[in-house]
Amino acid sequence: xxxxxxxxxxxxxxxxxxxxxxxxxxxxxxxxxxxxxxxxxxxxxxxxxxxxxxxxxxxxxxxxxxxxxxxxxxxxxxxxxxxxxxxxxxxxxxxxxxxxxxxxxxxxxxxxxxxxxxxxxxxxxxxxxxxxxxxxxxxxxxxxxxxxxxxxxxxxxxxxxxxxxxxxxxxxxxxxxxxxxxxxxxxxxxxxxxxxxxxxxxxxxxxxxxxxxxxxxxxxxxxxxxxxxxxxxxxxxxxxxxxxxxxxxxxxxxxxxxxxxxxxxxxxxxxxxxxxxxxxxxxxxxxxxxxxxxxxxxxxxxxxxxxxxxxxxxxxxxxxxxxxxxxxxxxxxxxxxxxxxxxxxxxxxxxxxxxxxxxxxxxxxxxxxxxxxxxxxxxxxxxxxxxxxxxxxxxxxxxxx
Length: 401
Prior knowledge:
mainly alpha, DNA recombination, 14 helices, 3-stranded antiparallel β-sheet, 2 domains
């Protein structure tokens, strides 16, 4: 049974599912009266699951995307409620993720992203990479597990899928080698500074690369940060220490050491934009200043585009040096803001920074309650980060400390 004529492929917030497919009589529904959810249909049950992640935008968007894809595939492609899916159905869905067909129904015509309210919106922008396929199945397994625990479903059909033996985590490959990173810095340093616009562009490029590299921050952390998030306190030796407060993945707050080199670059960037060299503690100006308009935080996509623009410029410059630099330029074309986070972590590790320091700086694991009182550990982390992890611009900042 194909219900293409009954159900249109559209976002779940505007989706209307016929009662025969909405799951109220799904073959995998839990025992009557055992559900802990008020939901009596699959769409409402998915909304209940997603509500757990409403306060974390990125996670919510990713989880909604995978739940939405499966629900739409079930009712449109199979003509079945999500709560009637079997092990065999999910094997078909696993194959579908490799190449969603028919493409005109499931895939954006241009491979581009459109607003969810746009008629050109589709659930996919193209076939999923192996990593994205695995991620989709992990998310859906978590969804089914939650629905079973809530009593909405009787069993988890995902649990029957054969799992490949877990391989050891591969080394990070999406990062820039030290030599290629030096090329990026050289390109930034030689940017023209004749006009005011050129000076501001140079200042932003230098600040962006410095900030991402020295702090190892996620793009969302940089986009949402403000100048007033910098603060200083006295270390055990009586000397000032600068730190940057940030809120990372899962709304977990952490503080990242801000080395004297970073603070010198902060001074340089602010001075280039006509600001006082040091921000006030409660200053609301964004960490990345817009070129024009209201001084508000840039979107994640705007920060992403700014970093991609730096890499693209450096790649073009490298190609101009001759054919021998083509492979290095191609590598930069693939790079993104997240590569800078990996680059920061990799260079710190290769430079001998303690892995526990890197863990805490990057926010991979939250500090436990006891560590909140171990200020001597913070002092050592600050000293080690400032001394061993440096930007190393050829021309030192005029306002160095």
